[in-house]
Design brief:
The structure is a single chain. The protein is mainly alpha-helical. The chain is built from four helices and two strands; from the N terminus they run ααααββ. 38% of the residues lie in helices and 8% in strands. The two termini are 18 Å apart.
């Protein structure tokens, strides 16, 4: 779910991020990186991980603490294109926007 949320925020023409915030810094640092580099950057971002854990632990769902293969959900996000004219699907399992 968090990747879908990031897609939605970073691809929205009406949502901005404070450049001094955790998301804003991540966004600025990765504006020109490849998807794989973005992934590695997020995986090593301890500041993001700590805040995500803190907020995720407040959730209403029971967490799976052991075998992640038991997770059976996949999230996608929808956002407007850069011109704000077309709705695109952002799905990490696909090569690019649909």
């Amino acid at each position: 779910g968090i990747i879908a949320c990031l897609h939605a925020v970073f691809n929205s023409p009406v949502v901005s991020t404070d450049p001094c915030s955790i998301l804003g810094k991540y966004r600025l640092e990765n504006e020109t990186t490849t998807p794989m580099e973005k992934c590695k950057s997020l995986e090593s971002n301890t500041e993001f991980q700590n805040i995500h854990k803190a907020h995720a632990s407040r959730g209403q769902s029971r967490t799976i603490d052991s075998d992640q293969s038991k997770v059976r959900h996949h999230f996608i996000a929808y956002a407007l294109d850069k011109e704000g004219k077309r709705l695109v699907e952002l799905d990490g399992t696909k090569a690019g926007p649909v």
